[in-house]
Amino acid sequence: MFKTVTTRAARQFVQPSQTAGVARRYAHTPVAFDWKDPLGTNNMFTEDELAIAETAESYCQERMQPRVLEAYRHEDYDKKILEEMGELGLLGATIKGYGCAGVSSVASGLITRAVERVDSGYRSGMSVQSSLAMGGIEEFGTEEQKEKFLPGMAKGKILGCFGLTEPNHGSDPGSMETIAKPHPTKKGYYSLSGAKTWITNSPIADVFLVWAKLQETGKIRGFILERSECPPGTLSTPKIGDKNGLRASITGMIQMDEAPVAHEMMLPDIEGLRGPFSCLNSARYGISWGVIGALEDCIDRARTYALERKQFKGNPIAKYQLVQKKLADAATDAAYGIVAATQVGRLKDEGKAAPEMISMIKRQNCDRALVNSRILQEIFGGNAVSDEYHIGRHVANLFVTQTYEGQSDIHALILGRAITGIQAFV
Amino acid sequence: MFKTVTTRAARQFVQPSQTAGVARRYAHTPVAFDWKDPLGTNNMFTEDELAIAETAESYCQERMQPRVLEAYRHEDYDKKILEEMGELGLLGATIKGYGCAGVSSVASGLITRAVERVDSGYRSGMSVQSSLAMGGIEEFGTEEQKEKFLPGMAKGKILGCFGLTEPNHGSDPGSMETIAKPHPTKKGYYSLSGAKTWITNSPIADVFLVWAKLQETGKIRGFILERSECPPGTLSTPKIGDKNGLRASITGMIQMDEAPVAHEMMLPDIEGLRGPFSCLNSARYGISWGVIGALEDCIDRARTYALERKQFKGNPIAKYQLVQKKLADAATDAAYGIVAATQVGRLKDEGKAAPEMISMIKRQNCDRALVNSRILQEIFGGNAVSDEYHIGRHVANLFVTQTYEGQSDIHALILGRAITGIQAFV
Amino acid sequence: MFKTVTTRAARQFVQPSQTAGVARRYAHTPVAFDWKDPLGTNNMFTEDELAIAETAESYCQERMQPRVLEAYRHEDYDKKILEEMGELGLLGATIKGYGCAGVSSVASGLITRAVERVDSGYRSGMSVQSSLAMGGIEEFGTEEQKEKFLPGMAKGKILGCFGLTEPNHGSDPGSMETIAKPHPTKKGYYSLSGAKTWITNSPIADVFLVWAKLQETGKIRGFILERSECPPGTLSTPKIGDKNGLRASITGMIQMDEAPVAHEMMLPDIEGLRGPFSCLNSARYGISWGVIGALEDCIDRARTYALERKQFKGNPIAKYQLVQKKLADAATDAAYGIVAATQVGRLKDEGKAAPEMISMIKRQNCDRALVNSRILQEIFGGNAVSDEYHIGRHVANLFVTQTYEGQSDIHALILGRAITGIQAFV
Amino acid sequence: MFKTVTTRAARQFVQPSQTAGVARRYAHTPVAFDWKDPLGTNNMFTEDELAIAETAESYCQERMQPRVLEAYRHEDYDKKILEEMGELGLLGATIKGYGCAGVSSVASGLITRAVERVDSGYRSGMSVQSSLAMGGIEEFGTEEQKEKFLPGMAKGKILGCFGLTEPNHGSDPGSMETIAKPHPTKKGYYSLSGAKTWITNSPIADVFLVWAKLQETGKIRGFILERSECPPGTLSTPKIGDKNGLRASITGMIQMDEAPVAHEMMLPDIEGLRGPFSCLNSARYGISWGVIGALEDCIDRARTYALERKQFKGNPIAKYQLVQKKLADAATDAAYGIVAATQVGRLKDEGKAAPEMISMIKRQNCDRALVNSRILQEIFGGNAVSDEYHIGRHVANLFVTQTYEGQSDIHALILGRAITGIQAFV
Predict the structure, then answer these.
(1) Which residue numbers delimit the Acyl-CoA dehydrogenase/oxidase C-terminal domain (chains A, B, C, D) (predicted)?
(2) In chain B, residues 223-242 whose CB comes closer than 8 Å to chain D
(3) Sorting pLDDT into bands at 50, 70 and 90, what band is A313?
(4) How far apart are CA D214 and CA D228, in angstroms?
């Protein structure tokens, strides 16, 4: 048997692969290292993708960045941001048709990274609109549902949110208590009752993709609830304030007390947790790009600070080995995060991305972004306590990204199960 | 200015990129997760590359693996291994011509990973032959030098080594003391004097690519020293034994006392540290692949152990959350390591790889392989102390890979310098 | 020579030490483990110390805890707290005489721990009053200075602060720019000019222990500046708001423009950085106790949450191995922190504590408190973002404690210098 | 209620504790920092304890250290070492009477630390003799058993070992399979059958404290098996070689096939796992001291290396910030480890040490010793691979100490259970 292997090898080596035909030139012509892109990942993107990234980046730096400090201080989300993004085509960008841009998963990742470079809260607001609300309708909705909602949502004129998590069931949505029963008075309608919490965008949303147990089957189904259809007292969406992080996004509850939803506003065909999990998967894919954007902003700011801050013999602290190591570590994790997310994005577009791959990059990129942002924050010394250096905000935000849509340990156990075949949730 | 950005974006979104044309299907057709390739990296390789990998893998598992335990115990390197590799075309595989296979940098990475999956020492032996000795001659040698040595080296009939490091100048080769002077008696010859240490393969080498300061210029130059040309007493290559790691490779010194080397055996044109650094760069690129192979073997063994080992209520310890987390962490770092190394390999073949990129992947992959192998070793509990579980050997080896060809901290400072523009070596 | 050793050993072993006379009983009578005091450290304290700790603890939990959430949200420090502390004898507690309690360093550490269990900001306010302002006057002041200020400060009627740090010289106070010159118009007075920043309590302080360079000598001297003595325009103490942490303490600048200070308000005899460094040393000693208090509060809250929060099969998440490990790690570091701080406290009272010892416990306890609080925060999952769980506040505070009064890396280099004899600040 | 607290506080503060009476002098008289004892722990020990430590230290450095390299290389344990220790009174040192020294638990910890400073394997050999074998007989044996064995064991003339762990039940001894039945032919005897593995000293032991299930009750009991009483074929103790660590200690199996043991050689009164766990507890206490000794040796060697090794501009690498931080971290963990172990030792002698306290210090000190030794090893760069620097040996040993007598994670779960009240072993 070993012979054949040898023989095949021989053939391979005699006819070298085409890629190998390219000469190794780099030793002779020194290539410059770009600290903003340490592993040359721009080389992995198409021209279109790079152009989209540039658009998003310009918008974010020029329009969003100036607003974020005040928004964060006062927990004050400007919902016009979603409209501006809609004008640029940044919402639901991977969806084909319905007024959406239909770009690659990698391009959408690059948009997400640009937004989160400014603030994870802004990215959360966008993710909910794009991946959770629009994505859910596009993937599981009827043609009528898509046509009714997607074009307005793509423009940022109709705002959506996604109601899965309940107060007592964070990591375990299967135990949800929200229920859909036949509406007691309105024919052709269900009535939704129950409470959802930690729902990004809920206080400003027009449309709620709510997951509830259908009384007649006991199965989880998805419903598109419209605020405009709800009589007073059936729907309330109080804001949750005094947050430790993501203060530039708006978070709230969805409290439903016999809120009416027409039969045709139930997502067809999809039952159980497969529906919401698929939406979350898309959102998590986006997070894995976004958090690297936030980390990259931390690197940039820490580097600048280290070059400008002088101590002792008038040397910039960038000359300290201990500072350089922090920068090197962070730059490495950021670059690795991008190559991994790109790889999964490519597989996603080829229909080859397993959900566990997304668990892996969501978990790892969030973890590494958080760890490194915290370490970079040390470079600012006592000054880090001032919010004008922005890094404290990123650190607080990144902690939240690590815990939502699957806390790091939950994803570890999802991966552990995939590796060992054994369930370790107890 | 912002307008234009909007306009360009509009164009991009109207004409979606081709990649994006592929439908997002994965949500509907569940894709299986392969714990041996968590990020689907096999999708990144060409068919040829995959076939080469399979050849290398089969050889390594069937022929090398059975030898390694005894070799490691007794620090006994079987130099026939290089000959066997030569027969399969695994030596100097990226070199085009001279009997070499001319494969892509990624293919050569895959070979390296297969070898180090067995043992880092075996990979070291190969790296020295391929990247340092053959690579140096190929890159900087004269046509005559190449024709004289490369074909025999490719076959593993002529063994090479690489003499740079000196006893007192590990991280700082610029201070080397080895000197090349006009030979006192042999015309047309230089005489080499000095000592090199920690030289893999030196005790068994036929050919020594030695770096020395040329007396007349004070500049560092490369010399191809042949054992067969050295009169008794001018060259000795004592083995260094009692090593804590890499015991399946052979390491030694090169002690030269007026060792003669013909003028035409000096590498032309290349002066200073650029030559040896370029060779080391190639070797480091290989290490960044190899160590992931070693880590993958640790994952495989730890997973198997965890599934077979039962404790307490008869459950396999793979059911423990603490065990699953270790496996998930390690699998993540291994997968990230492969995507990053692949990315750099592709850039390398396009002439776009900066040396700092290689510092980054060498450092990160070595660090993460070491950290994770150590954590996986804990899964074996007290049994880890037995060498038959192999993981202790990998752990000891991986520590060495982290320190050689640039200790982790040195590469951190190389990166720090590239990021900040400031030198922090003091 | 070896003989003597044997002989002495023999003697030792024949006459066993008295401590050894106590029988090892524990194996037979099982001793209960107290998770709130895992290493039985209460056994190290005197009855008086325990009683003082209880007083402080009761006050803090009953009076401070209810105020902290609102104070933190609105950056609103209630300066009556210092008065209340004064009534209980908690201010300047180690000082003997002048109306101070004269307790042991360990007792004062226990007070600090109780206060910071509520909030690091409250502890900062107290530290500044006790260790920096009162401690500086007590250690370096004239008898007149002590009698004038200490009794009122002990009662919390006179509030003090400590002005060392300047905007551009965080870790390097030797480069300070604040200067004391002969006052241009007031005889027997100096005029102070310059700016101090990140000064806890400055906006509410009555008395400012300010360090400045005396023009005539160029040496750093200490001055007791009184707000009531400053004509309009010579002293301003603007509050620094929008902080990322320590929001329940008040921080500001000290801007001096020819602020007058009488000659007799200069600290006598002490010149250079020895003075402020000695005060900081005392404050750092207190921090090393305080941060463990904050960590202990995190442990308590995380444990409670883990026992109450149920997921999946209705099990409390306290049953998860990954959760238990976090609690075990944190409890270990907290307990180790207390034994180490106690040891240094005892040495301090015996006059045997080297400053580097305090660098060590300040650094280690801050680092470990920070790391563990962050890990415990993960137990709260998404809920951690709500400030009502208090842990996010501790995390944000503890980051600041790690950076102020010597960032962790600075103390590492102080220790490194003490260990190697070589200075590595560049 | 709050009033009373205030009142008691008042009393406390009026009558300051005696310790507080000592003036705070340190600021004025600078105290020297001793890098070998960073937290001044020698101040915690009695004069007798210090003298015992010195005896042990002298013996270890002068007599053991010169033997260890060859012993480790060849897995060759010199059992005369136990005899030498016996002559010095170092064996079973906390036992009172029976020819033992009767020293304090802290003194015995200091002995252990001195031994492990040389090698963890040497300490293992001593621990087994002292804590497991002698300790078990002393704690649970009859007066006759004590008189028969302890005096000879104290002298190192009779060697003991401890047979608990079985091949398939590392962390879970409750499932043991070794059985004690009435001996088929010898009246008044039990017959022991079963296998124990990873038994330190078994190949050289004269006496085996073996734990087995008594057939008639199904309960675990302890038996003192003597090699001299076993007919051929009933007892074999093969050595386990080719270990990755602890190579200077001897490890083996105990294979019993109807090995005879007289009824009066069963430990009376003690049943179940309480017996072996109590012995292990004592051994673990010793380990918590020992590993810090090994770490301290690593610190010493790394410091020396860093001061002697020069790179780049001729500076010793001790000048590197990255090197200094490694030393500072390690010195901190070593010092903390000693204060914690001392605290538990004192409680142990007062009968106040809970087993979980020992889990805590065993786990933490082993973990930190291992982590830091590995980091210090990096300072040696490539040279670390040579066993003559000794640090590689410590690293390999310390990994084993982390896994034996309760792997780190097992102790984490023991602590987790004590903290939460919930069992997480599944």
Answers:
(1) 272-419
(2) 240, 242
(3) confident
(4) 22
Question: Hey, of D315, D317, D321, which one would you mutate to test binding to chain A, going by the most A CBs within 10 A of its CB?
Answer: D321
Does residue A45 register a pLDDT over 50? yes
pLDDT of residue B29: 57
Confidence at C219, pLDDT banded by 50, 70, 90: very high
Tell me how close the Cα of B272 comes to any Cα of chain D, in angstroms. 16
Q: How far apart are CA D375 and CA D360, in angstroms?
A: 22
| Dihedrals phi, psi of D370, to nearest 5 degrees | -65, -50
Q: Give the span between the Cα atoms of D21 and D217, in whole angstroms.
A: 61
CA A360 to chain centre: 14
Give chain C positions within 8 Å (CB) of A396. 244, 392, 396
Pair type for strands B189-200 and B179-182: antiparallel
* Residue in D315, D388, D426 nearest the CB of B426: D315
CB of A422 less than 8 A from some CB of D: no
Q: Which residue has the higher pLDDT, A364 or C405?
A: A364
Under 8 Å CB-to-CB from D26, ≥6 apart: which residues?
C347, C348, C351, C352, C353, C354
Contact D311 B169 (CB under 8 A): yes
Give the residue-averaged pLDDT of D145-156: 98
At position C397, the amino acid (one-letter code) is: N
Residue B259: strand, helix, or coil: strand
> Looking at the predicted structure, is the pLDDT value of residue D360 above 60?
yes
CA gap B225, C338 in Å, rounded = 63
Please, which residues bridge with residue D96 across strands?
A: D101
Q: Give the count of alpha carbons within 13 A of A128, CB side only.
A: 33
Q: Is the dihedral of CA A329, A331, A337, A340 positive or negative?
A: negative
Neighbours of chain A (3+ CB pairs under 8 A): B, C, D
What letter would DSSP give residue D74? Answer: H
pTM metric for this prediction: 0.94
Contact, A201 vs A159, CB < 8 A? yes
Residue D138 φ then ψ, to 5°: -65, -40
Separation between Cα atoms, residue B1 and residue B410, nearest integer Å: 44
pLDDT of residue A29: 57
Residue D10 reports pLDDT greater than 70:
no
CA distances from D69 to C412, D203, D246 (A): 33, 21, 12
Whole-angstrom Cα Rg for chain D: 24
Identify the three-state secondary structure at position C352.
coil
> Nearest CA to CA, how far is C111 from chain A (Å)?
25
Other beta carbons within 10 Å of C188: 10
Nearest to B322 among C321, C424, C426 (CB): C321
Amino acid occupying residue D170: G
Which among C41, C278, C363 is the nearest to D27, CB-wise? C278
- Report, as residue numbers or ranges, the catalytic residues of B: 405
Which candidate from B33, B44, B411 shows the least CB-CB separation from A418? Answer: B33
Is A32 part of the contact surface with chain B (CB cutoff 8 Å)? yes
Nearest Cα of chain B lies from the Cα of C357 at a distance, in angstroms, of: 27
